[in-house]
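Why show two proteins at once? Because comparison is the fastest way to build intuition. When a single record is shown, students tend to memorize it. When two are placed side by side, the eye starts asking what differs. So, the first record is below.
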Amino acid sequence: MRPRAILFDMDDTLLDWFSAVHTGWEVVCAEFAPGLGADPVSLREKIEREGALFWRDEAAAAPYRTRPLDSRREIVRLALLAEGLDDAPADEIARRSFEEMTSRIAPFDDSLETLEALRAEGYRLGLVTNGSTEMQREKIERWDLARHFDAIVIEGEFGRGKPDPAVFAHALAGVGAAAEEAWMVGDNLYADIGGARAAGIHSVWIHRERLQFPVEAPPAHPHRRIGHLAELRAALGVG
């Protein structure tokens, strides 16, 4: 059944967050490593490894989703200590990496055209994103995303984040659709797919040919898997 409304995650679904994060760390590690007596590549790899470990337990790390600088500071501190380095520069490295990362975030090539095409076909659209109000609103305003959506739910504003069922209920109310009339598109199996399924929403996992579906104990099983948004448009019969 074709849905009446479609909810979208933002980071790594509509905006290329992963590439911005990776490049941001690369630039900042090249900037700071010489003064620390460290190898830039080794430092970046250690930071990315510590970051993956930090966010692995998504439920435990949830309080940090609305505190981006605090989470970065802790990840950098852990990485510096793991490399046997002084952790005093952690604050400055975290701040610089945040600046570099946010300046590089941009929509995927298919994002804006997909939103415009869906709006033209009369779909009700919602944006449902975890994270801090300031950080997420800055991205929404920079890329003029609000004009595409009938409802925007940000964790920092609403007070709860995905996969909390209340988040999806609030988004559905905003787009004027029942759960069985909506699809949720997102890259995070735990927050987007698990949350949508628990709310009774048809779940669409977008992997962008970067993510691998976990063979053992996935957080949730999506109803549909897509690599890019062209596959979503094809499923809906939207050119």
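Second record. Ask yourself what differs from the first in the token line.
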Amino acid sequence: MKLEKTERLEDLQCNGLKIIQDKNLYSFSSDSVVLANFVKTKKDDVCVEIGAGSGVVSILLQSKSPLKQIYAFEIQESMQKLCEKNIKLNGLEEIIKLVCDDVRNFEKHLEKESVNVVFSNPPYFKVTDFEQSEVKKIAREEVCLTLKDFVECSARMLRNGGSFYCCYSAERSVELITLCAKNNLIVKEMFFTENGKGQVKLVVLKAVKNAKQGVKVFKNLITNEENGDYLKILHTKNFGK
């Protein structure tokens, strides 16, 4: 596959999978790897990824455990093209279906309450004045999708008993959990990540639609060395166990 001048090919170190990243667009981080390793699916599951970006989470997830179908929603045209390229690169056109639309319009593509698993590494921040490219701003800030809309859409998609997986800014974890509860997504598993300097960065959780109360909290996952390098644990498949 031909790469553009701004693109680079990377080895995902998982079953021969590769990923193309573009330095002018939004590049994935350890957050995506942590999420992909935490999500649990069954072979007949229909899944939705909200905000697919380059497609890395869906690509890693399908490799971890076979599943029926992933609908990968991505709103940005430049990221859609990159995601489609990565899906084809890994020969996953039959499993991962790219949906080039705002996830709030999901009922154009899927029936309400028809999905087994929703997973996402969504925008973490409220809209700021920080100067950055439009692509990165939409990926990082609530320009196109607020936290409220994100959780509400997820709840509407999911079947009763369906699972919602998300990683999010630890600073906004109370907002996330409160909105989940309002939409009958009951948090069942969660943990926090921290960097090599002891700073808590993310909350990673699983919620189940209309489940009974009771949550299992795992120990913090340290993702970096003190110098900032990612730990090799990010390549394991045992987060949350």
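One difference worth noting in the second protein: The radius of gyration is 17 Å.
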